[in-house]
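Technical annex B. To support the medicinal chemistry partners, we prepared a structural model of the target in complex with magnesium ion, based solely on the information shown next.
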Amino acid sequence: MLKIKDLTKTFGRYHALSGLNMEVPEGSLYGFVGPNGAGKTTTIKILCGLLMPDSGSVEICGMDIAERPREIRGLIGYVPDYFGVYENLKVSEYMEFFASCYGLYGLKARRRCTALLEQTGLEEKTEFYVDGLSRGMKQRLCLARAMIHDPQILIMDEPTSGMDPRSRFDFKEIIRELNEQGKTILISSHLLQELSEICTDLGIIEQGRMALSGNMEEILNRVDTSRPLSITVNGRVEQALAILRSHPCVQTISVKDKEMMVGFMGDKQDEAQLLQQLVDAEVPVCGYSRVRGDLETLFMQITEKDEKEVLIHEG
Ligand SMILES: Nc1ncnc2c1ncn2[C@@H]1O[C@H](COP(=O)(O)OP(=O)(O)OP(=O)(O)O)[C@@H](O)[C@H]1O
Ligand SMILES: [Mg+2]
């Protein structure tokens, strides 16, 4: 769907992007994560045709961005990190203005705008002035605007920054829904944990390079092998413990009432086999899951590793 190869961009002598490679699969909800100054906004601006790269290539839906910028722009909806100022403009006027930019007028435009404002939960704000909206509402309005031309790909630059937990949650639900409806979504943030909850794919950028990328499940599986297995039983605790103690993959067990946290060194197959063993022994298992990996920890591991490599080079 979206392929970036060896992308570089310098600002003066500063290398904002130094050989970035990235692939966003069709239908994915791709989390683009990295610390401040890593190059997220620069990459996004290049994808949206607002900035020219120094070298490298960007392909979207099989088209090269340098060769067919207009067509590509029609495929993308962009939600920038900065909203801008719109004095004396009401929400409905704002939306209709952008609709007109895409050649939509009159009833057709009004229908489309109403539908989008409903989808983003702003149907009651149509007569409000844009500048009077809260930050969360402005971001939702930005999203509604970005969807006017029904783009296949939505690209959002830190859309939830500055939002309170409630607005964040609502925004994430809207994004998830759009993704389920088939939109490919690229969303940048430095909140790793937040993205891990909704994303199907992830790319971690650091100093203008991709430090780690791939399917979320694969990435989480790489997170430290110490991800425990959480098992909750509704009785027969002793029996469950006896089975766990004799299992070759079990390394540690901590029990709190009916919940056991098990240090487990096995894969999915081993997990399934252990569950079967518990069920066969008629242990009433009512909860069984691998605790999700902590991306924050993974990110630290990656950057730590890089530091070590640098030291080896110096030595
Ligand atoms: N127009 C510009 N002129 C000079 N330097 C720039 C410009 N735009 C970006 N940079 C530099 O390029 C680097 C990458 O910036 P970018 O905005 O892409 O980072 P980011 O990952 O979006 O960071 P943040 O999380 O803070 O938004 C930064 O060091 C920044 O100072
Ligand atoms: Mg940025």
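Notes passed to the chemistry partners:
The pocket of magnesium ion (ligand 2) is lined by residues 40-41, 81, 157 (CB under 6 Å).
The first helix runs from residue 40 to 47.
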